[in-house]
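retry 2 of 3: previous attempt timed out while embedding adenosine-5'-diphosphate. Reduced batch size to 1 and resubmitted. Inputs unchanged:
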Amino acid sequence: MLHVVDVCVSFDGRTVLDHVSLHVGGNEVVALLGPSGSGKSTLLRVVAGLQDVSSGVVRWDGTDITQEPTHRRRFGFVFQDEQLFPHRDVAANIGFGLRMAGTDRASVASRVSELLALVGLPGFGERDVTTLSGGEAKRVALARALAPKPRLMLLDEPLTGLDAALHDRLADDLRNLLRQAGLPAILVTHDPAEAARIADRVVHLGDLGSGSR
Ligand code: ADP
Ligand code: MG
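retry 2 succeeded.
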C-alpha cells in the first residue's frame, strides 16, 4: 500500500505540490485528474523517486521510501512519450529489465510470451519496433513495464495523443489488463471520461492538498 503524506514540492520558490496526501491500497486503480500544469506529473515523479520533495514522506507498506532510489522501488512506469529501444525487436524491448536484473534466457523468453499474450500481441516478439502502429507500441511499452512484476504501476497520460477510436479501445484494454495483472496503479490524466472508464477511484489533485482538508 502506497502512502504519500503531506508532500510539498516547489520549483524556483513556486509551490507546485502543497501538502499533498494520497493513498493507494490493494489492487485499486486510481485516476489522478487535474488541469495541465497542476502538478500531476510532478506527483507521479515523486512516487517514482524521480523528484525530490521539499517536505513530506512517501511510504510503501509502512516503510519510508522517500529517499529510496527509483530502481529499488520496484514500480513500473509508462509515460506519454514512451520511447521503445529502436534497435531491438519487441521481445528484447519487453525483456530488457529482466535481462538487466540477470534473469536467465529461458525465463525471460517465457515471461515475454506471457506478456505478449496479455497485451494482445501474441507472436509479435520478433517484430522490429519501428514497424509497430501507435497502439501496438503502447501495448509493448505496457508489457515492458509489467515484465519485472512491479508492485505498483505509474501511468502518465499513456493514452493522450491517440485518435478517438483507438483511444477508447486501448482504454478498455488497459482497464482489463491492469485488473488481470493484479496490481495497484495510478493513472494520470486530464480527461475525466478516460479516468471514469479505466479507474476504480478518481481523485482530483486539487482536492489532495492542504487547502482542501
Ligand atoms: P501536469 O502534469 O499536471 O501538467 P507538471 O507536474 O508537469 O503538471 O507541472 C506542474 C508545474 O511545475 C508546471 O508549472 C511546470 O512548469 C512546473 N515544473 C515541473 N517540473 C519542473 C522542473 N523540473 N523545473 C521547474 N518547473 C517545473
Ligand atoms: Mg503531466
